[in-house]
Amino acid sequence: MCRQHARYFASAAIGGLITFLFAAVCMMGNRIYLEPKTIQQKDVRSPEINSNNSNSISPPLYQIARDPDENAPWPRIAWLMSFPNSGTSYTLALSESATMTTTGSTYGEHHPDENGNSVPVHEFSPNGPFWTNVTLDKPQDGKYVLTKTHCGGRCLHCGPKNYITTPHDFLKDCAAGTRIQGNRRESVMYDPTIVSRAVHLYRNPFDNAVSRYHLAMKQLILKNDTEQL
Question: What predicted TM-score, i.e. pTM, was given to this entire model?
Answer without folding.
Answer: 0.71
